Amino acid sequence: MAGKADVNAKWDACVDLSVRRVVYSTLGGAFSALLLFRTPVTRWAAVAFGAGVGIGSAYSDCSVIFDGSPAKCTHHSKRSTALPAPAPAPLETPHVPAHQV
C-alpha cells in the first residue's frame, strides 16, 4: 500500500506543478504579447509559445519526479570496429613539358 501512496503523491505533485507552470507561462506570454505585439496573430503566437514553454517545463520536471532523472535525447552512433578505409592515392598528373602547353 505504501507504493500506491507514493505514486499518488507523485501524480499530485506532477499535476499541481503542471497546472501552475502552464497557467503562469501562458499569462506571461499574454502579458508580453499585449506589450510587444499589435496584430492578433502575433499575440496568439506569443500566448501559444508561453503555453508551450510551460508544458515543456512541466514535462521535464515530472519526468524527474517519476524517473529520478531528466529526460534525455539518446544519440545512437553507428561506430564499427572495422579498420578505416585506406586513404585514396593522390592524383598523378602526367608530366607535360612547358613548350607543349
Automatic annotation (TrEMBL):
Transmembrane segments: none annotated. It is found in: Mitochondrion inner membrane. It comes from the Eukaryota. GO terms for cellular component: MICOS complex. The keyword Transmembrane applies. The keyword Heme does not apply. Keywords: Membrane, Mitochondrion, Mitochondrion inner membrane, Transmembrane, Transmembrane helix. It is a single-pass membrane protein. Belongs to the MICOS complex subunit Mic10 family. This is MICOS complex subunit MIC10. The lineage of its organism: Eukaryota, Viridiplantae, Streptophyta, Embryophyta, Tracheophyta.
